[in-house]
Amino acid sequence: MGDATEINLPDYNLTGKVALVTGATSGLGRRFSLVLAKAGAKVAITGRRLERLDELKREIESLGGTAAAIALDVTDTGSIAACMSETEKSLGPLDILVNNAGMNVQALPAEVTPEGFDTMFDTNVRGAFFMAQAAGRSMMARGAGGRIINIASIGAHTVLPGLTIYCMTKAAIAMMTKSLGKEWARKGINVNAMCPGFIETELNSDWFQSEGGQKQIKTWPRRRLGLEEDLDGTLLLLASDHGRFITGSLFTIDDGQSL
Ligand code: NAI
């Protein structure tokens, strides 16, 4: 038991750490990349739209940070392997993976096609799993532990109207988080997930500007959308030493939207 003079308040310093963010070209992934870089991590910003990655790299560098812009399509396991080796060559061994890339094909359950279904599962589940596998293998080979932060959704545990298949993919991410948390606990790898509520990004901005979207916002207790920065604190907790005792956990961050 320490006394009060030994209490160190969190400073979330990630200097010396290497992080990789998938789907960094927009929305939450872009924000996560900037926050990790500002906390001192060297960040592999990855995605399919290379010109956007170059722009983000310049922005990180203008803040005094370090970034490597690396092509990645999470549905292609060859692309995952190439991205991992490029990250380690450019920045060093990986400490933190933010498994953020994700998408939705808008279709009601009675109408969704097999192609739409497969696209969602290939990106949100298969892509996230093989990214976690690649990161986990690298962390285990090095033996220094690591952090995997999966981006699920409140749809992992709450029915979101019109988003059946999307919610199914996020429920799979929730179970993957708990299972890998247990499998890799002895290896010093902490695996957790954020389950955000609705936050306005490119994924949903058209919907929330529509009449239907405005009505949906009014059904939530605080009648407001989240902002990208509302996830900063949880990200830094899970990425930093202050998250040492947290693994296999799912964090609902939704302003009460799912209550
Ligand atoms: P977004 O559409 O702005 O970002 C998703 C990113 O993933 C994009 O950069 C996209 O290009 C990338 N991506 C999609 N398929 C990919 C692939 N095959 N390979 C590599 N990158 C790929 O949307 P947002 O909102 O930033 O979403 C980020 C994550 O957060 C997603 O997993 C989403 O499901 C999740 N989420 C978002 C919420 C929201 O309200 N915005 C709420 C809960 C979860």
**Number of helical stretches of at least 4 residues:** 8
Looking at the structure, what is the overall shape? globular
> Regions with pLDDT < 50 over 5+ consecutive residues?
none
Largest beta-sheet details: 7 strands, parallel
What is the typical, i.e. mean, pLDDT?
A: 96
End-to-end Cα distance, whole Å, is 37 Å
SSE class: alpha/beta
Q: Strands across the major sheet, in which order?
A: 3-2-1-4-5-6-7
- What's the CATH class, please? Alpha Beta
CATH topology: Rossmann fold
How many discrete domains? 1
Number of strands: 7
| CATH-derived architecture | 3-Layer(aba) Sandwich
H/E element sequence: EHEHEHEHEHEHHHE
CATH superfamily placement = NAD(P)-binding Rossmann-like Domain
Strand content: 5-15%
Question: Nearest-angstrom radius of gyration?
Answer: 18 Å
Associated small molecules: 1,4-dihydronicotinamide adenine dinucleotide
Roughly what percent helix?
40-55%
Layout of helices and strands, plus pairs?
Elements: E1 18-21, H1 27-38, E2 42-47, H2 50-62, E3 66-71, H3 77-91, E4 96-99, H4 114-142, E5 146-151, H5 164-183, E6 189-196, H6 205-209, H7 211-218, H8 232-239, E7 250-253
Parallel strand pairs: 1-2, 1-4, 2-3, 4-5, 5-6, 6-7
Helix pairs in contact: 1-8, 3-4, 4-5
The structure holds 1,4-dihydronicotinamide adenine dinucleotide.
